[in-house]
Amino acid sequence: MEELVLYSSLTAAEGVNASATAVSGVISAIQLHTGTHISSFKQNTSPANATVFTPNHIISVQEGKALLNVYTWTKEAVDQKIVLPERLSCIAISPCNNWLVGGGLESGRLFVWELSSGILWFAREAHYQAVTHLKFSADSSLVISASKDSRILAWRLGDLVSGNQDEVTPAWSASEHTLAVTGLEIGYGGTSGGDARVYSCSLDQTVRVWDAAVGTLLSTFILSDKPSALSVDPAERMIYVGQLLGGVRIIPLYETNKFSGSLEAVGGARRIITLDADHNNAWTLITSAPTAITALALSFNGLNIITGSQSGDVIVWDLTSRQIIRTLKSHRGAIGSIQCFWKPFENLTSKSKSKERKGGAFGTLNAVSRDSLKIPVFKRIVEVKDQNDHDVWCQVGNGIEGCDDNSEDENDWMNGSNDSERAKSQALSFFSDGGENSLRAKVQSLENDLSKLYGCYGELQNVHEQLWTAYSENK
Known about the structure:
Blueprint: E1 3-9, E2 27-31, E3 37-41, E4 51-53, E5 57-61, E6 67-72, E7 80-83, E8 88-93, E9 99-104, E10 109-114, E11 120-125, E12 131-136, E13 142-147, E14 152-156, H1 157-160, E15 172-174, E16 181-186, E17 197-202, E18 206-211, E19 217-222, E20 227-232, E21 238-243, E22 248-252, E23 254-256, E24 263-265, E25 271-274, E26 282-283, E27 293-298, E28 304-309, E29 314-318, E30 323-328, E31 335-342, H2 367-372, H3 384-388, H4 412-415, H5 419-431, H6 435-474
Parallel strand pairs: 19-25
Antiparallel strand pairs: 1-2, 1-31, 2-3, 4-5, 5-6, 6-7, 8-9, 9-10, 10-11, 12-13, 13-14, 14-15, 16-17, 17-18, 18-19, 20-21, 21-22, 22-26, 23-24, 27-28, 28-29, 29-30
Keywords: Nucleus, Repeat, rRNA processing, WD repeat
Protein name: Pre-rRNA-processing protein IPI3
Main location: nucleus
């Protein structure tokens, strides 16, 4: 498995000087650690935050058009064109790969489609101006939307697909920003127990941290420059902020207490922290002239950051030394989105025994399997009849990532058709082959596992009490 960088760009502005090797109208896939060019998906000009991918597809909004381009990983040309109800400004896909949400460019409307059926479950005004960002929580239960109207709204996915869109209200809303939101991220953790955090930045020169469960403002960082992009490292130790005047600003979320030497969280309790324009936590790109950072992404291990700029340059940086590792293939337009992920070889290799034909750089797919993976035409209006006559299938248990490729079909992630059969099979295997004696043995095994779990919980509780005692003594 190799780590790839997928990035796209907007249409190049008139008069912009680009290098002779810069490309235009493509989505580029590059190996992160070698810089090797893998593929260019053609005929694409997508706005910021408007390119997403699934294990089988790349989906991008086309700038200035009510149109989606759909690509397969094995084909550089457009595989499908899907007409939309209106022009969209951004899209996002759920981690479970079942739902695609879009934000209206002029109307500020929020759209929710089911990928396996194309049914439009929700379409309603959510913001007063264009939606700039859409993010799903890690468990796909929450959708966060941000807009040029400076508001941030959180929506429960269950409410959005309930079929009662007129009664749907945001789970929470935040209006502390005073200008357009230019960056949005949601961290890991549960969205119901207060573990997950939402990070946002705005042209009002602030970065804010929110509780994803209830929308409580936790921290506000005041910057010396207007932020244009935002990313958070996988461990949520640092916030990286791209700036309109060029360069990247680092905001540490933990720092060492000068007196006790212990690591403490920065901010919290609605604290406001003003950050000076110091050089220790900020650096500028090595370019002939400062250029705005329009997109950011971090590698899986959090040691590298990939920056995309207004001039179309894409640079990989080492975060320890803050030196350029390599410069990737540049685009003629501003970079709209950058995503870093693992190369999906296994999920793209056909397991059919029929005759295969050669695909692209990502593997092979035969004609039958490629047709079965096509995304249905998206509905353009909400039809209650379609919703009432349709059952929503969700993948339970193993998803595409990390699943056993020899036991799953390529389109299981779309329809969940094997879930019920798998559950029946597991139930039958549990209650068969040995009768009562086998059942007693399995019950005993489960009781032993539960006993071990209680023991681990007790040890964890003791460690927590010791840490709390030490913290209280040093406070």
